[in-house]
Amino acid sequence: MKSLAELSALRDKMRDKIAIREGNSTTRIVVGMATCGIAAGARPVLTAFVDKIAKAGLTDAITVTQTGCIGICQYEPVVEIHEAGKEKVTYVKMTPEKAARVFEEHIQGGKIVAEYTIGDADVKK
Amino acid sequence: MKELSLNILDIVQNSISAGAKNIAITLSEDHKGILTLTVADDGRGMDADEVSNVTNPFYTTRTTREVGLGIPLIKLAAEQTGGTFDIKSAIGKGTTLTAIFDTKHIDCLPVGDITATMTTLIMGAPDVDFTLSHTAPGGNVSLSTRMMRDVLGDISLADVEVIQWVREYLTEQYHNFGGAK
């Protein structure tokens, strides 16, 4: 059974790392989590990113945050990728499967998945 | 919304936006299958005028769009089962929302993934204290971020490893849970 004692062990493990962690995060994934985003399926998209980050052991380098409605409800779930020194990339109509691909190709591989971005005509239809 | 847990995720965002420090989410199911959801916060609260407007889909405090569907959607989800919806609020005192569902009704949405709702909420507002209490004749599930915080000290609850712990902690409890899912 999971217990609070286990959480205490986790704390001790993380204390050692916290010095390295602070201010070290270079990539920020922002998921829209207003009524429109939630209804369109933003929650499993967020979970998919968190799982990928945990599996890849990149919890120090990448943070996942949530935002409210940014006014493009028809394109939800919307995900923005903010990387230091680069322009923001906005992905629209996301799914957990698309999130996995964005994580592997864009965040890890450095190559934007153009067909999922808001600028792509196929996504806008 | 496909499941009540998504309605809950959505309306709790209102409590967070209202500056709540403590948010209590309670789901209680009786032996007749009547499920009562309450969300109680200590946010800034609303005056009588605002309370009377919140169920109107064309009322919203936001500026990015002109509709606010969170409250109307959960009200609909409750009323379509023959249940009720109520919201009580006072400026400076916080807001308590109560929705009652008949889980035996064919139009009652499944409760769904409360675990994912809790992890999403904690990640989004790691400084807010959440409590979850889900009780049914067959068992109960609970979580208190205050208790977690006491153990974790200055470590953020939004940390991915902490979130994974919350997920496993609740998943285990739901595994043995006998109520509506």
Structure description:
- Chain A has 125 residues and is an alpha+beta fold.
- Chain A has a single domain, classed as Glutaredoxin (3-Layer(aba) Sandwich).
- In chain A, a hairpin with a 5-residue loop joins β3 and β4.
- The longest helix of chain A has 18 residues.
- The model of chain A has no long low-confidence stretch (mean pLDDT 89).
- Chain B is built from 6 helices and 6 strands, in the order αββααββαββαα.
- The radius of gyration of chain B is 16 Å and the shape is globular.
- A 6-stranded mixed β-sheet of chain B has the order 3-4-2-1-5-6.
- Chain B has a single domain, classed as Heat Shock Protein 90.
- Chain B is of the alpha+beta class.
Helix-strand layout with pairing:
The complex is a heterodimer of chains A (125) and B (181).
Chain A: H1 4-21, E1 27-32, H2 35-40, H3 42-56, E2 62-67, E3 79-83, E4 89-91, H4 96-108, H5 121-124
Parallel strand pairs in A: 1-2
Antiparallel strand pairs in A: 1-3, 3-4
Helix pairs in contact in A: 3-4
Chain B: H1 4-17, E1 22-29, E2 34-41, H2 48-53, H3 70-79, E3 84-90, E4 94-102, H4 114-124, E5 129-136, E6 139-144, H5 145-152, H6 160-175
Parallel strand pairs in B: 1-5
Antiparallel strand pairs in B: 1-2, 2-4, 3-4, 5-6
Helix pairs in contact in B: 1-3, 1-4, 4-6
Short description:
The complex is a heterodimer of chains A (125) and B (181). In chain A, 45% of the residues lie in helices and 16% in strands.
Mean pLDDT of chain A: 89
Write down the CATH topology of chain A: Glutaredoxin
Q: State Rg of chain B.
A: 16 Å
Distance between the termini of chain B: 15 Å
Beta-strand segment tally of chain A: 4
Percent of sequence in beta strands of chain A: 15-25%
Major β-sheet strand ordering of chain B:
3-4-2-1-5-6
Mean pLDDT across every amino acid position of chain B: 93
Class inferred from helices and paired strands of chain B = alpha+beta
How would you sum up the global shape of chain A? Answer: globular
List how many beta strands of chain B DSSP finds: 6
Shape of chain B: globular
